[in-house]
Amino acid sequence: MSNEILTPDKPQEAKSASSAPPKVGFVSLGCPKNLVDSEVMMGMLQSAGAKITTHAEDADIIVVNTCSFIDTAKQESVDTILEMAGHKTGGKAKKLIVAGCLVERYRNEIQKNIPEVDAVVGTGELEKILAAAGIQASPAHASDSPFKILNASTASQSLKSGVYSDQKVGHVHARPEGDARESAGRFSRDEWDGAVHDLPNYLYDENTPRVLATPKHMAYIKIAEGCDHPCTFCIIPQLRGKFRSRRFESVIAEAESLAKRGVKEVVLIGQDTTCYGEDLGLKDGLALLLERLAQIEDLRWVRFLYAYPNKITGRLLDVMASNEKVCSYMDVPLQHASANVLKKMKRGASSDIFLKSIDKMRKTVPNLTLRTSFIVGFPGETAQDFEELCDFVQAAQFDWLGVFTYSDEEGAKAFHLDEKVPAREIERRRRKLMQLQKQISKKRRKALVGKQFDIVLEGPSQETELLWEGRTAMHAPEIDGKVFVNDFGEHQDVSEGQFFRCEITEAHEYDLVAKLL
Ligand code: SF4
Predict the structure, then answer these.
(1) pLDDT tens for residues 167-224?
(2) DSSP strand pairing (23-28 vs 61-66)
(3) 221 beta partners
């Protein structure tokens, strides 16, 4: 078993003070959490003198930051690695590096089966990207600027020391649940050939260089990493390690830096943001964080993604209700509604408990936008369980809903459960649930016609330049439907990232049409 990054063949090819800086191209797959990891690795490389390119054919080094959440994500990761390998065998690239979740799961296989891959970097060893690329952190690229968040277009900046994170080693805090679950084997990777024994423990901080890959007006902030929950279908805890929070002040400092750079919207992310701060001894840590972030003058919107159902506290809802800048938007993946299935998933609760909780959310936070996601076809999900889920969806009337088909993951507890649902039936259930939500979505969008909202413009529509696309607080970036602007009123010179007041004039199943006021 090897846990070392492969030694680059010719490190001097990549780094030389006198030769042109190496160009690095990144492909980031999967979720926004993975995107932040890519931004951190790009920041480290750029600070060490590399140039980031968006053209794979121009790159000397290509990094594929992979996802390994479910089978389709793994397949996409492998396909992308093979596609990028083509730039090495038949193009300019000299190095191919694979990073991310796939490395945690299949470290040995990647190196053995894809000979074009020169090095691998797991989710807990982001700093090794420099060694993997054959680039040394060079004081020649240091700057006096204390600011370490870079935009892709800016020249290389700031590398004051080789230490990027205050929490990467010896993170002393832990939640008691995490420790207990570790003792019970929740994080065990013993059956994964090639996985390194130590769980990922890395967390970036406000001093870590980061190249933002998102539009200038918004940025993600990862406030926590890892997960301690026991969900039986999920291998993320094995891939990402135990739950750990970033320091409160570190998050604030990063948000302040971002705001100074023109970011207007920050989106807080983590596997479970509602546990934020528990390992630091904070009670209602997320609520406190949101309250403090809402005081940053230049920020317009603050939102968080991925709440765990029984971690949504009254204080959190109050903070959402009483701070204009905190978006009234809740993404709470419920996964199912039948008590029978939820028990097998080791998540607990029931449709009645969820309905009561949703009622409380809506009563406390007026105009709350509620998003959830479900898994259909979990082992043992009967026709009756599925009907219960449909009834629940009808009763709950979510604004946004995603449906995943169950994916049997080796290493997840559910892999060993009997009563697997046939693939065709799983797909039938997915389609039926989506069809049901389509009607709900249509009705909920229609109710918005004539109402006014703040909107941020995101640029001309991909379909036609006559339309622009935008988002309201009801729309998280890249996840929810779109708002098309077809009437700019007096505002003829608009630009990306500008906020306006708008009125909704048309509603479709998922998208809206608006005019600027
Ligand atoms: S809460 Fe459950 S589904 Fe979400 S990352 Fe943790 S273990 Fe996976």
Answers:
(1) 433 344 678 888 899 888 888 888 777 777 788 888 999 999 999 999 999 999 999 9
(2) parallel
(3) 268
3-state secondary structure of 483: strand
272 lines ligand 1 (CB under 6 A): yes
| Ligand 1 geometric centre to CA of 231 (Å) | 6
The maximal CA–CA distance of the chain, rounded, in angstroms, is 69
Q: Which of 271, 308, 373, 407 to mutate to test the pocket of ligand 1 (most atoms within 8 A of CB)?
A: 271
Closest C-alpha among 262, 155, 178 to residue 226: 178
Q: Select from 227, 221, 349 the least CA-distant residue to 292.
A: 221
First-last CA distance in the chain:
63
Reported as a single tens digit per residue, the pLDDT across 341-362 is: 999 999 999 999 999 999 999 9
DSSP string, 126-180: GGGHHHHHT----GGG--S----EEETTSPP-----S---SSSS------HHHHH
Tokens of 222: 């990862």
234 lines ligand 1 (CB under 6 A): yes
Residue 227 Cα to ligand 1 midpoint, Å, equals: 6
pLDDT score, position 197: 73
Instruction: From residue 396, give the alpha-carbon distance in Å to each of 199, 353, 388.
Output: 38, 12, 12
In terms of C-beta density within 10 A (0-12 exposed, 13-18 middle, 19 or more buried), how is residue 342 classed? buried
Residue where the block lists tokens 């649930």: 433
CB count, 10 Å around CB of 493? Answer: 6
CA distances from 294 to 264, 299, 322 (A): 11, 7, 10
DSSP string, 17-51: SSSPPPEEEEEE-SSHHHHHHHHHHHHHHHHTT-E
Q: Is any ligand 1 atom within 6 A of the Cβ of residue 455?
A: no
Q: Whose CA is nearest to atom 2 of ligand 1?
A: 231
How many angstroms from the chain centroid is the CA of residue 308? 15
Residue 291 carries which side chain, given as an amino acid letter? E
* Residue 41 · residue 31 · CB < 8 Å: no
Helix H or strand E segment including 455: strand 452-460
Predicted TM-score (pTM) of this structure: 0.90
